[in-house]
Specification:
Blueprint (H helix, E strand, L loop, with lengths): L1 E5 L4 H4 L2 H14 L2 E5 L4 E2 L4 E7 L7 E7 L3 E4 L10 H9 L1 E2 L7 H8 L13 E2 L3 H11 L1 E6 L9 E7 L2 E5 L4 E4 L1 H11 L5 E5 L11 E9 L5 E10 L14 E2 L2 H8 L4 H20 L8 E8 L5 E7 L8 H18 L2 H4 L8 E6 L6 H16 L2 E12 L4 E8 L2 E7 L4 E4 L10 H6 L16 H7 L5 H4 L5 E2 L4 H11 L1 E6 L9 E5 L4 E4 L4 E4 L1 H11 L4 E5 L11 E9 L5 E11 L14 E3 L2 H9 L6 H21 L5 E8 L5 E7 L9 H14 L6
Parallel strand pairs: 1-2, 1-6, 6-7, 19-20, 19-23
Antiparallel strand pairs: 3-4, 4-5, 8-13, 9-10, 9-13, 10-11, 11-12, 14-15, 14-17, 15-16, 17-18, 20-21, 21-22, 24-29, 25-26, 25-29, 26-27, 27-28, 30-31, 30-33, 31-32, 33-34
Length: 698
Amino acid sequence: MSIGIYHATHPLQLLPSARIEAMVDAAVELQVQILFFDEKGLDLKNKQVTASVPDPDQPGQWIIQTLPLPDIVINEMGKLPKERSSVEQKLNRMVTFTSHPIHGKLRIQQYLSQSESLAQLVIPTQPCRNIHSLQDYLSHYRHVIVKPDRGRQGQGIVSIRMTGQEEFLWQTATTEQIMTSAGLEKSLMALIEHQDYLVQPYIHCQTTDHRPFDFRIHVQRNHQGTFQITKIYPRIGEAHTVVSNYSQGGTTALWTSWLQAQFPQTADYWIDTLPEIGLQLAEYIDAMYDYPLDELGIDVAIDHEEKLWFYEANTAPQTRDHEYERAMHTIGYAHYLNQRYHILEQLPSLPDDQIMIGLLAEHHGNDSDENFIEACAAVAAVNGARLVRIYADDIFFRQQRLLGYVWEQGGFVPYACRYPDVVFDRLKKRGIAAYSRMYDALASIPATHELKSGSMSKVHIYRLLADASEIVSASVIPFHDMQQSDQVVEFMEQYENTVLKPDTGSHGQNIFNIQQRESDYEVYDQSYLHYLDATQLDHFVRMSLGKGYIFQQFVDSSTTEGHPFHLRTHVMKVGEGQWKVAFVQPFVAVSTYRKVTNHAQTLRLSTKWDWFLNMEYGEAPGQQMDRRVRQLAIETATHLEKRLGRNFPEVAIDLGVDKQRNIWIFEANFNRIGNSFHAFEAAKYAVPYAISLYKPLS
């Protein structure tokens, strides 16, 4: 087999000589051919490349040869797909790349905060878009770090510490400066002008002689495709500096000996813990993506109280002191990927006797997802079709084949499959650069879902519904998009009882109820009550400007016993493309003091819609409230489809009902819609609609 080492700039000109030598040695040891090339050497029309090949007779010398495209490409310092040239994108469609980039630091921190076991490692982090976000953290922590969201090697990191009431110490890797509030704002705006920055509290991780340190845990996939630790080492900066990175003058040491010297009482614990936590972090971050990550440089630190913190994770980490160890895993993993592509030859081929519905799914689905997929498999069989479960990394582009899983005898069985007749998209990652290759390959196949990935903002939905029918437009909750603070105060005074919440997502988090009283304002964060005067409220509002929040009139959607509730109205397309309500699912919070049904610390229960109708409204299905809910949901879905102009098979519309029985639209969700209690009801709509898209070849 042949493995290509590729970069837009020729790798022999870009990579350190130690890395090149290590990769050549690893290739010889693993008995694979290795070739180095750049974009200029590609001849994609003839599927050839002009590359530099190691001279077997003269070590360190190169032979220029024109060869077939390699089996696998190690794309050093991998770029986001949108950053690749058109030639590089075409190459990636023809040959698999081993390396994939990851999200910025903020996204990784947010994702880790959802983990029960790893959330305790996460440093409080928020975007630093203006002086208000910085002042917010400074007033709370007094010493903060401002860093680029996609920075590397310690570049662009600034330490800012309050040294007086209106005095701040601004410190970079090379400079220190005392400045006033005005100077701070000027320096900050110049810093964040051209890229996204984050602000975090400063974590006190220093040696006794005031040298900052952290630990780099280098994790790689090996020749078996599994993660293993390649190297762990401490990075120790110069005394009284900001960062510990190599490139900023840092040094390193043997990690076990260094731990024993610095933490003599607990060194054994940390020697056991750091490798374990490195692998846990790698596996958890890898689970964010449907393509496998090949390597991560994970940075963690132990503070002065011996608490472990996660700093960040990077792809393509520096490895100047362990190039050979890295190369063995890098080449070994490329070899594993190539062998894996021959798996189709070892599997039975799926019979081509039925309509094939290819269901794009996640590797790590929850129980409700699994129940829904199994229900879809059963409904497909009843309708004379076959459902095949597909993962993004199981599509073999060169062969135009895929590894699919078919439900048989109580489990999913692997088969070698052709491309499907219809794409049933439960993955819903369209528009995300890392998945462009997959969606491009399947572009000619009818798909159930054509919307771009991501939560659609509430403001965007409300504005789309502004010109809908009267029943829909009148159900949009009065809102303000948080652009100017004085207008927000006017909005609060107009409605008296309001709610401040994130414009996208939230899962019940960061929601504030604000009620105007005679002389102040009551602010409730779902856990604590705060009483603010007008000045404090104005400051609170200004802190929220530009951070993705909206204001709304508060809708008291609660039962007669005071339990908050909302109605998940799941609207789906039937075979003819018409919208129908598959089910209405009431969710009721056990708590009576929180105002949010789906708050993380509130137990919410679900009940049957007909029971809820009877208990709350004294009605049965088909009577007034049931008809109104269904009509509003269907008209909303119909209007959104018209305005969005793209195909989608389902939308979950969350509704609330106030004490006057007015029905209000809380939000509409197009992505990752759960079916916790109605898997089969949803499958009865989803599968026939997918089949209806099938267009047989004439």
